[in-house]
Amino acid sequence: MQEHQNVRAATVELGVGSLSGQDILAVARNGVPVTLAPDALAAMASSRSVIESLAADDKPHYGVSTGFGALAVKQIPPEQRTQLQRSLIRSHAASSGAPVDREVVRALMLNRLATLATGRTGVRPAVGLAYAGMLNAGLTPVVGEYGSLGCSGDLAPLSHCALALMGEGEVRTADGQLMPASAALAAAGLEPVELQEKEGLALINGTDGMLGMLTMAIADLHRLLATADLAAAMSVEGLLGSDSVFAADLQALRPQPGQGESAANIRAVLAGSALIEEQKTGGFTRVQDAYSLRCAPQVHGAARSTLQHAEMVAERERASAIDNPVVTLDGRLESNGNFHGAPVAYVLDFLAIAVADVASMSERRTDRFLDRSRSHGLNAFLAFDPGVDSGHMIAQYTQAGIVSELKRLAVPASVDSIPSSAMQEDHVSMGWAAGLKLRRALDGLTRVLAIELLTSARALDMRDGGLAAPRSAPAVTAGRTAIRAVVAGPGPDRYLAPEIEAVRVLVDSGVLLSAVEHELGTHLA
């Protein structure tokens, strides 16, 4: 998903435990520069002194003077420890497949830098400053989609970033040019970093990629769920449905907060609808609408409640200092299992389930418009001249294909586990995979909602002859007007794919939602 409207900051300053979701959006999507606060630099220097004292010790310490994973039984002499860190990064930068999106890599890097800034990893301040320098220069390491099992950190993705910091591997510049990392660093005035004891491990041992994807998905879902409420409202109006089921007192009988918010959104969008009021005074006998109309707050609300839980998990994860081993506040170096991605992986999967269900309901509403026996007076398939024209017949096919894909993407990744590292890492989270499939699911939901909105706008135009004298609610009229600014009204069949894409962009950018909210004078919940 490429087009977004997010809050822009002048700069993001990372202190000890100060990262927010808005910080991630600002840096990952908007290229806002990042700095390290004095308290972060001091904390890093303090924990580094712990590592240096252990490096001089003749006892083995994991990550400082031993190998890694199943090779932790081997102690490494001082003269080979720089090579140890270099070899770790080179060997672990083993991703494959299509490159992941730039914003995913930038979010991953920022999350790792935030953990370095806590002072719990034992890296030198110079390493953190160099990492910030890469972000600020817009250098994005090339990371393949496969390589992380979501345990012991997002190892391969993070290793590609650490490799670039060393001046190896490939990066893309701010303008998208593919370059060797050494040349890109030089062009940006940055020096490659020679990693010392513990530093290679500290750069790759966290849930940073999956957390970045979760944080961005949360922002996208806030917009998409509000848009789903808008789409449902437009479909209720276009299908001459009833708004009485959305009444606050009926919703209060089932006090699920997300449901109440969704119903309030639909009520707000439908307020002042002449089409709805006509059904109440014209001898209308249909006493109940179909579930896809009547139960929209229940489904959209359940998705909202899921999103609220995901936000809590993401907030706690951003407040975490994830590394193994970790330098404790009292100066011990301790092994732990905090790198396991289960908390993040579960909610990534949970959100994919919610996304699939919201999209499925949207497709059912669209289908009702196209069936002459259920559309209450509209042309079959909303065709201009049915038989000669096919209208939106195949747009619904496109929706159906996407919804079917979303159901497959809703199968949890986190229930799978393939043992690795000679059975030392015998249970993994697959959180990285859960994050990637959620991103695909969000793109699918965006397209499904776009088709519903395009369809409902066409149906409403057919009911009242267009926007010259609309009988829609003012908020719905604002939405229709935004759609008509990029797509012409009903007529003989046209090339439909560009029209679907134009409305997809309206949804993905937030422009459509903003037009409706401007008319309402408030934000939809």
UniProtKB/TrEMBL annotation:
Keyword set includes Lyase: yes
Keywords for this protein: Histidine metabolism, Lyase
Pathway: Amino-acid degradation; L-histidine degradation into L-glutamate; N-formimidoyl-L-glutamate from L-histidine: step 1/3
EC class of the enzyme, as a word: lyase
Gene3D superfamilies: Fumarase/aspartase (Central domain), Fumarase/aspartase (N-terminal domain)
Lyase listed as a keyword: yes
Catalytic activity: L-histidine = trans-urocanate + NH4(+)
Subcellular location: Cytoplasm
Secretion signal span: none
Coiled coil, from the record: none
Any one GO cellular component localisation term in the record: cytoplasm
EC number: 4.3.1.3
GO BP of this protein: L-histidine catabolic process to glutamate and formamide; L-histidine catabolic process to glutamate and formate
GO molecular function annotation: histidine ammonia-lyase activity
Family: Belongs to the PAL/histidase family.
Protein name, per record: Histidine ammonia-lyase
Native organism: Arthrobacter yangruifuii
Lineage of the species this protein comes from: Bacteria, Bacillati, Actinomycetota, Actinomycetes, Micrococcales
